[in-house]
Structure formats: C-alpha cells, structure tokens
Amino acid sequence: MANDAKVRLHTLLGNYPTTKALKSGEIASALIDFDFADVPVPNRGFKPMVRQHVYDFGELAIGTFLMARAAGAPYRLIPATVMGRGQLHTIAYAPERGPLAPGDLNGKRVGVRAYSQTTGVWLRGMLQELYGVDPSSIRWTTFEDAHVAGYQDPPFVTRAAAGQELVPMLLAGELDAAIVGDKFPDPRLAPLVPDPEAANRRWAETHGGVPINHMLVIRDEIAAARPDVVRELFRLARDSAAAAGVTGPTAALRFGVEPNRRSLELVIDYAFRQKLIPERVPVDALFDETTRALA
Questions:
Q1: In the chain, which stretches have pLDDT less than 50?
Q2: Do 78 and 152 fall within a single domain?
Q3: What residue numbers bound the domain in which 277 lies?
Q4: What is the pLDDT of residue 72?
Q5: Most buried among 145, 151, 178, 248, by the most CB within 10 A?
Q6: Are strands 212-219 and 57-61 parallel, antiparallel or unpaired?
C-alpha cells in the first residue's frame, strides 16, 4: 500500500450530530474515501466486525473492543470517543411491584440484553462502587450472546427462555430490575437510581468524564502500513465533533489518550473483575506509537 495512495475504507459509523459533518462530506480528506455501511443501528454491525472482520474502520463499543482484542481480533484502538453517556439512568424497576433501591440488588434478579453489553459493564462497576452491590450475587438474565465468538457467560448468568422478553418479564415480576437503555419503553417503569441525571453528573466530575461507550477502531494492517491515514482519521473525527460543539476534557467525546485515560482504566478494571477479559490491560497497551501521539 503506497504511502501516497488514497485509500477507501469500508466504514461502520452511526448517524450522530457529531458525525454529520464527516458523513455529509462537509469535512473531507485528500487521503481517504469512505464506503459507509448501511447499518441503521451501529451495534448491529459489531458482531460481524469482531467475528468476520468485515469493516476496515469504524466505531465499536469499548467493552466489545476489549473482549475482541483479548480474542485476537485484528483491530487497533484510536483514542477518539464516538459516543459516551452517563449510565445510571439506564436501569429500571417496576414501582407497582414494590419499592426497590440500588443497594437492594444483592441476590436479586436483573435482566440485560447481553452480559457483555458495555452499558452493563459500566453499570455493574458503578453500582458496586456507589451502592455496595456485588455483581456476582445478582442472578442475571440475558437475551443474547456476546458479540465476540466463544465467550461463555459466568455461572451466575442464565439465558431467558425462547420467546421471553425483557420488559414483560420485569413488569410481571419475573425480574426485579432491568437495564433497558436511554429511553424507558413503558411508562410503568421508573429509574432505580434516584435523580439519575444528577448522579451521572457527579460521576463524570469525579471519574474523568462521561463514561465511554463507543470508540474508533481501525484494521491492524492498515494502521501498520498507513500511519498517515490513522492521523487523518483522528483529525476528521475530531473536526466533525468540534463542528457539533461537543468536545472538551469532561465532555462525552474526548480525543487523545490522556483525556480518555481515567475512563479507560475504569472500564478495563470493571471488565476484568466481571470476567469479561482475562487480565487488566494497561491503557497504553491499547495504542501504538502513532495513536499514543494523537492529541
């Protein structure tokens, strides 16, 4: 691959305000042409990315990346956050079933789409730190397998029976709480964490910023052959986010290793303690000489 050649990258990237300038061509490159995959929700592309390696470049949930890296998937991390959010508002309970507080979760039944889901990784770690919850004491119920092939859930995780669904199980009292995401799908549900948005703000202020959800990754062989392309991808992502006015040291989108270091340290530690990865990886080991220098 000649160092002056323009490259075309098959790309998985969601439609966010922060990617609009890049995906529309408003911010363009003399080095790169993008072949954007037609995937309506980016997380639907994560499994083919880490199992069949179908994309050259794109976004990937940080929990999935850590697991895929441990499994030998041929991708490198670029220190650019594509999506981040507070997590404490994503877990719900059904008040009509009786009162429940975060500290009551030990020994309870909690549902989540997949045990390996990045939101779940963050929430389990946060609940343990803030409310003394032991994630391994919870009886977790899942509905999907991990994006990374071959991963086996811990023994305290069980799969729901065919045909069962998360929200109906919660409303019926078959689950005590459930991780349902940003928007609650039923008005009978309520946040388990009191005033979760205030709790999210406090967390960001004291833990290195808003938790990382998705970061950029690139195929190993391209990164090795074309560090100029890696630097250009970082510039394009940073400029597109800046055009939307959402970058900053504690914002959801942060660029460079140091602004993301604390958040990465936390999610690595959580993933290890939750038996998703076999060892605690140093943050710097996630990057190469080119990506460590990006800022």
A1: none
A2: no
A3: 7-84+211-292
A4: 96
A5: 178
A6: antiparallel
